Input
Amino acid sequence: MKRPARLGPLARAIVDGDRRALARAITAIENGDPAADPVLRGLYPQTRGVPVVGFTGPLGVGKSSLINALVNLLRERGRTVAVVAVDPSSPFSGGSVLGDRIRFDRRADDAGVYFRSMASRGAAGGVAAATLEVARLLDAAGFDLVLVETVGSGQVDVAIREIASTSIVVLVPHLGDEVQTLKAGLFEIADVFCVNKSDLPGADLAKRDLAELVSLGNASGRWAPAIVGTSTVDAKGLDELWNAVEAHERYLDDSGERRAGDRRRLAKEIVGLVRDRVGRELTDRLEHDEELRRLLDRVVARSLDPRAAAEKLMAEERRAR
Amino acid sequence: MPSTARPARRHPIRVLIAKPGLDGHDRGAKVVARALRDAGMEVIYAGLRQTPEEIVRAALEEDVDLIGLSILSGAHMTLFPRVLALLKQNKAGNIPVFAGGIIPDEDAKRLRKAGIQAIFGPGSTLEEIVTTAQKLARAQS
Output
């Protein structure tokens, strides 16, 4: 493997399999700690683009239990797996209870698995702001696969799409009639539909409704979302579910969609980083720069409109560069 | 290009709440988890019947600032020292551990000496627990 000389001690420890170093670097990313910066930058060339499989769906459908069952299956096959499980932060206290770990089997001495709970910390869309970079770090740490569990999702929580190479939308029987499957949002991002708790009555109907939805949108040559029924209480459908994930990953490579998708996502990420940074700098200057404060005063006094102020700010910014 | 890192600010305390051993009484642990959440902490709730090995592994993977153990089985004199020893073994002896449950005064004294930072028996208020947890976590970081 390439190992550039500029790798710092923390990054090097992560590549060498030091799990404590990995855990600390993840905390640094979550906290926006500048210490994460050289680690992420140094390790980027080490990432291989391993599959990142997202599990999303409403709360209580069994995402954590499903991930646990899949980890068992993947470990039997000798694959190393990292899991990131996101739960919501309170919009009131900022606190959270991260409870996905209790669904996870006892693996006190298996170095081939890493499990990390993550709070959403105010991010919308079902994942945390740090999730993308954390998944990348886990790739650099050498795991064969990264599984990401979103918060229990609503209809518009589709941010996992920007992180996962394969998105599994997990549902259960009796979530609603077929009209629900026509609605925009969550149902549009599935590469694989998983009807979990298929031991319950109504699973066949749910699968049939999804099959109908998939057939409606099926353009020839494009990936048609797979539909798999699973049950974690009697360990059914797990092989089939993983086969569907692997089939989708193969499709991404064969069709060239992986390359195109990576390009699109990375462009978005870069622009996002610039937007964050410029935004922070400008916010700071509006508060502290005398001239810009006067500009804000004029907008407050209604002698200047916000759009004109934004124009002036942009012109100012260009001059400063 | 200069660093794109966000400026560091005060981050939420991450705390692991776990029940070592075999008793199934998790009400107290859940109430404490909820109170710590409401105090703005990120509580990793590991739940029932954890071995000391599992607890320490979870603490390291989750990079917690603090560990809270709840026990009502009477096995605290075996399980708590084992957790402390494993933390030390993993060079994580700096992570403060507090505990709650039915623990006789005699035992509590010895456990404090062994390194359990605070022990909350019946009658402890949530406010006491939250304040102590905050103090322990901040002192460590």
Notes: The interface with chain A takes residues 3-9, 11-12, 14, 33-34, 36-48, 51, 53-54, 57-58, 60-63, 90-92 of chain B (CB under 8 Å). Residues 1-9 of chain B have pLDDT under 50 and may be disordered. Residues 2 and 18 of chain B are 42 Å apart (CA to CA). Helices of chain B lie at 27-38, 52-61, 76-89, 105-114, 126-140.
